[in-house]
Design a protein that fits this description.
Radius of gyration: 18 Å
Low-confidence stretches: 3-14, 143-150
Helix content: under 10%
Structural class: mainly beta
Distance between the termini: 52 Å
CATH topology: Lipocalin
Number of domains: 1
CATH class: Mainly Beta
Amino acid sequence: MPLALVIALALPGSALASAFFKGPVNGGANNTGVEFRAKIKHDHARKVLEFRWFNVPVPPNCADSFEGLKFEMQVNDRRKFHGKYSVPNTNHVATVHGKFKHHNEKASGTIELKGSFAGGCSNADTGSLRWTARRQAADGLSPRGACSSA
């Protein structure tokens, strides 16, 4: 058996995992939110993958969404991450700051969009908008298996 395969089989299942997070921006009015995946290794978030946003309000009367796969950020030893991303085929930039909390069950931070947007919003700036996100279970329920009662 090749050595790499033996090492891979010897690692516990929790050694390397990917978790999905999602949550509201500025309280979630008009279904405004963010979502992303986080690469978690040995119970520490290491990288944010596929950071996306949807229905983020852009003054004076526009909104922006991004569903791409390329926006990634490294997570430092203090569980913080940040990045600036020029959205492809547009004339705007997203700046994101965030931090993982509560044993990687939650994350929070800010998103700011600047530039020109569809709908006639030229040279617009959203300012720093707060977001929060919770880790989602594979079945879409809360990660600890909590159930809601009817």
